[in-house]
Specification:
The chain has about 130 residues and is of the alpha+beta class. The protein has helices at about 10-25, 35-40, 60-65, 95-100, 105-125; strands at about 1-5, 30-35, 50-55, 75-85, 85-95.
Length: about 130
């Protein structure tokens, strides 16, 4: 269900490299949520770092939405760069597993498989 890799890179370097890998992979970065910073800005003691990248390939998103508009709630894809006990990690929830839980449309399974392959390549490139 998850794909998570450990990186020898610093948190910030891994985040920068992921952003470059997403763009190189033909996807766009719609937004980056800095969860660690947001929690700390609210006065919550939180020691880890976490950036969640919302990424999208417009062509693939259109294929999904034209088949089942309800799946807008599962888009865009999210890839996270985070620390856990000081170790940098990069991960995602596998799109194929997620979409198979939400829809049984054969066409969507093929799209999810393609997106999963591309996003895993991005994570591996940023690692």
């Amino acid at each position: 269900m998850y794909y998570i890799v450990t990186s020898e890179k610093s948190f910030e370097t891994a985040a920068q490299d992921l952003e470059r890998a997403v763009k190189a992979g033909g996807f766009g970065v719609l937004h980056i949520h800095n969860l660690g910073e947001t929690l700390r800005s609210k006065g919550i003691e939180f020691k880890e770092d976490c950036k969640v990248f919302e990424v999208c390939n417009p062509g693939q998103a259109a294929r999904v939405l034209s088949t089942d508009m309800r799946l807008n709630m599962a888009l865009p894809c999210r890839i996270s760069v985070y620390t856990e006990a000081g170790v940098t990690k990069i991960g995602l929830i596998k799109p194929e597993a997620m979409l198979s839980a939400l829809s049984q449309e054969p066409e969507l399974q093929a799209v999810a498989r393609e997106v999963e392959e591309k996003t895993i390549q991005m994570v591996d490139a940023a690692k």
